Amino acid sequence: MNVTISPSSVSGTARAPPSKSYTHRAILAAGYADGATVRNALWSADTRATARAVGLFGGDVERGDDGRLEIDGFDGRPDVPADVVDCANSGTTMRLVTAAAALADGTTVLTGDDSLRSRPQGPLLEGLADLGATADSTRGNGQAPLVVTGPLSGGDVSIPGDVSSQYITALLMAGAVTDEGIAIDLETELKSAPYVDITLEVLDDFGVDAHHTEAGFAVDGGQSYAPTGGEYAVPGDFSSISYPLAAGAIAADGEGIRIEGAHPSAQGDTAIVEIVERMGADVDWDRESGTIDVAAAPLSGIEVDVEDTPDLLPTIATLGAVADGDTKITNAEHVRYKETDRVSAMAEELGKLGVETSEERDSLTIHGFESTLSGATVSGRDDHRIIMALALAGLAADGETTVEGADHVDVSFPGFFELLEDLGVALERRS
């Protein structure tokens, strides 16, 4: 599907979709348990991949009419899957499920789509091997397809922290049900640290103790997953909130936009509220009620460090394209290892719209003074966050902007374009 966006002003109320990060962890945590009900879960292409994996491990995930997920778990000991675990485009699924597979008494094969088969898994495979499992890349390049044979019993492991925080999440979640537990020694500085904080929060809500140590993280073995009352509620997603928030900062009329479901949590991407405010938009976040009000104002370029918030880079880049001055996004090298190289993707696609950028290995600078946003046809790169960020640029571009491959928003925000229409955006879908 291609979507064409015409310059538009926006107003009204937007509801934050549930958090993808929390939903992944909650589905798998309920799988590790006897079972649980997960309320307000995001049901998207990525989270469905995690649900399928729980089913292959011997659990069952049923979605009710009210959106609740009723999950029967595999009680800490996954079955050997009867089929290949297809993680589709979900990197979170692959990392978390690879560690779960190492608990099974047998061999699991995991794969995904072209994009996922190009993403790095080597440090996690090496870590699982150090813990007693057999974990290999079929092509010997540290990328999927993966073959994992367990069971592992736990122990001490060293792993880099600057490639993906999901390695640490995967080991902590699996380590709780091992005999010995797992202690993780970080070899390098941890990038995207708030995502591990999310993991610790979800584990605590499921009755599992995992914690920071001087060297990294640790989780005791022999624990059981069991949320209070058998239920867990997923909070709103600040990665997704970044899009209506940026839309308001770019194009809100006098009434502005109100975003609901924006309650505080461990998500690092709550930083988008401060970023938009620093750039000059009129923002008011009522944390108690979980609402954010935003109105457009002249935006100015700033410097933003995305070491802990890699998913915000596309949104910030679009904000920089409509701002005066330079917007420099730093500590961004790990953003190159997402669904696509998001640093280069945003530089190249914004360039098609007339935006001047400077790209270095670990940074992206958007030169607002030297840019004139003009409608053009751009590629979504099969990446949900690139698609949504480019759609926002279309709100302020001179002429129509067509985003190719826009159906990939289903990965994290299935109702994204419907939300834009509800806010007043003029857009057209074409198959």
Automatic annotation (TrEMBL):
A biological process term (GO) from this entry: aromatic amino acid family biosynthetic process
GO MF annotation: an example: 3-phosphoshikimate 1-carboxyvinyltransferase activity
InterPro entries reported in the protein's UniProt record: Enolpyruvate_Tfrase_dom, Enolpyruvate_Tfrase_sf, EPSP_synthase, EPSP_synthase_CS, RNA3'P_cycl/enolpyr_Trfase_a/b
CDD domains, per the entry: EPSP_synthase
Pathway entry: Metabolic intermediate biosynthesis; chorismate biosynthesis; chorismate from D-erythrose 4-phosphate and phosphoenolpyruvate: step 6/7
The keyword Cytoplasm belongs to this UniProt entry's keyword annotation: yes
Residues annotated as domain Enolpyruvate transferase: 7-419
Any one Pfam family match given in the protein's UniProt record, by short name: EPSP_synthase
Binding positions for phosphoenolpyruvate per the UniProt entry: K20, G91, R119, Q166, R342, R385
Transmembrane domains' residue ranges: none
Active site: D311
GO CC list: cytoplasm
Catalyses which reaction(s): 3-phosphoshikimate + phosphoenolpyruvate = 5-O-(1-carboxyvinyl)-3-phosphoshikimate + phosphate
Residues annotated as binding 3-phosphoshikimate: K20, S21, R25, S164, S165, Q166, S192, D311, K338
Keyword set, alphabetical order: Amino-acid biosynthesis, Aromatic amino acid biosynthesis, Cytoplasm, Transferase
EC code(s) of this entry: 2.5.1.19
Subcellular location as annotated: Cytoplasm
UniProt-listed Gene3D superfamilies: Enolpyruvate transferase domain
Matching PANTHER family: AROM/DEHYDROQUINATE SYNTHASE (PTHR21090), PENTAFUNCTIONAL AROM POLYPEPTIDE (PTHR21090:SF5)
Homology family: Belongs to the EPSP synthase family.
Job of this protein: Catalyzes the transfer of the enolpyruvyl moiety of phosphoenolpyruvate (PEP) to the 5-hydroxyl of shikimate-3-phosphate (S3P) to produce enolpyruvyl shikimate-3-phosphate and inorganic phosphate.
Cited NCBIfam families: aroA (TIGR01356)
Self-association state and partner proteins as the record states: Monomer.
Protein name: 3-phosphoshikimate 1-carboxyvinyltransferase
Gene symbol of the encoding locus: aroA
